[in-house]
Design a protein that fits this description.
Two copies of one chain form a homodimer.
Chain A lengths: L17 H14 L12 H7 L4 H13 L3 E4 L3 E4 L4 H8 L1 H7 L4 E11 L3 H7 L7 E10 L2 E11 L13 H7 L6 E10 L2 H7 L6 E10 L5 E10 L5 E6 L1
Antiparallel strand pairs in A: 1-2, 3-4, 4-5, 5-8, 6-7, 7-8
Helix pairs in contact in A: 1-3, 2-3, 4-5
Chain B binds a DNA duplex (30 and 30 nucleotides) through α3.
Amino acid sequence: MENRWLALKPDETLTTPLYLQLSRKLADAINAGWWQADEALPSERTFSEELGISRVTARKAMDVLLEQGLIRRRQGSGTFITPRLEQPLSRLTGFTEQLRQRGFVPSSVWLERGVFAPSNEEVIKLGLSPTSQVSRLKRQRLADGVVMAIEMTTLPVAYLPEPQQVGTSLYAHLDANGHSVVRALQHIRAVNASGDIATLAGIRPGEAMLLITRIGFNAENIAIELTDTYCRNDYYDFVAELRR
Amino acid sequence: MENRWLALKPDETLTTPLYLQLSRKLADAINAGWWQADEALPSERTFSEELGISRVTARKAMDVLLEQGLIRRRQGSGTFITPRLEQPLSRLTGFTEQLRQRGFVPSSVWLERGVFAPSNEEVIKLGLSPTSQVSRLKRQRLADGVVMAIEMTTLPVAYLPEPQQVGTSLYAHLDANGHSVVRALQHIRAVNASGDIATLAGIRPGEAMLLITRIGFNAENIAIELTDTYCRNDYYDFVAELRR
DNA sequence: GAACGTTAATACCACATTAATACCACGTCA
DNA sequence: TGACGTGGTATTAATGTGGTATTAACGTTC
């Protein structure tokens, strides 16, 4: 049996822990597309035998990728590659956690939080009556003190009566109040940063940004969330996997 | 014992489950036209006897094809080939097919077609030797006569020896020559249009565009295609549906 | 030097899949 | 209508997968 995974073998002579070396090499391999979405990785035992390390070490390396959401485990079955497109969703839910795992210090600055009359676009996309009200959240998303994105969210006031009480995670707040977003439709476009967005994002006006427009639906398939996220192109990079 | 289905026999010595081996070989046989539409396949018992496996194993292999919609079962009667037109649509399609489905008339203007020495980036991403050669295609993509995108594709020369002979659809050409792209990884970023790209796309320099970088893999999971597509933001809109 | 956390190993547990046997239910046709 | 061939399903043993408790060796800290 040929040894296909030799490139992943950690170097015993280095001071870096074996499991960390392996987890990094594995992450690179996954990002390079060695395996496809939902495909099973080699088993922990395979890695331990082929790379000359113990099974628990191989397992611990995979623990890191598990926390990052790159892979998933099923007892008795195997370890599988997480489909790529799910990551943007979990990123928006767990912005804080995701960045922390990558060694950044995450934070956000509130720019606006309150109840307003809806705009025309919001009335249409959320299916509201023009006399109803919406809660609006606007904030800067930071990593290590650098602005990565500007995020503007609108919900019908019924789903978020007290926008002031939202902590760092809107999704956690919604979950706790029984209004989970279960499905989302994302439109990704490129736009030139307008003057005020550029100022908030800390870039020059006119620079290209990714604009992600999101409509979130609850379990009853009712649109309850509308979010525009302006992402700095030097920090964001969306990955999608396509199959026949 | 001479039997017609010996080519389908799974290899007991491999670690791949027997039923998976069989289901793949069966799928190949169906696509190769071994049976006609609505024709009955050999029975589960026939397979199990001729291939030296249990009936449930043969059945399980056929379960996979059933899920893919390749075959249909009728209790008491038999298992039948699904007519091609009812088979599920492929999700990985090229520019040409996508636009045609939306009712546009796609066309393209060749800007470059030939064989070149690879760049550093191409050597790494395609896993080439620096002395090898690549075929390169560069073209404007039009819909109803309007430029929508500028596309630059690179393939190892082995997979596209004669780039001059590519028609409007690269994917159709590759399919016809047995080098189908089965899976692709796409990175989506926002960029400001450079001078020459802007000229080709018919927009002003500095305008935001979507840059889609794609790595295409063949059935053996080897990277065979590298494509950069610069999309006009006023025509292109990348949509994704996410679920929890 | 003692206490502690990290690292990496061994050994065993729980669960899922695989692939077999045996039997059930439906269709076809003499 | 009954015999036979078809797909449908329950059960089971073996194998392979992830899950975890325990331990030994090594740093770091006090």
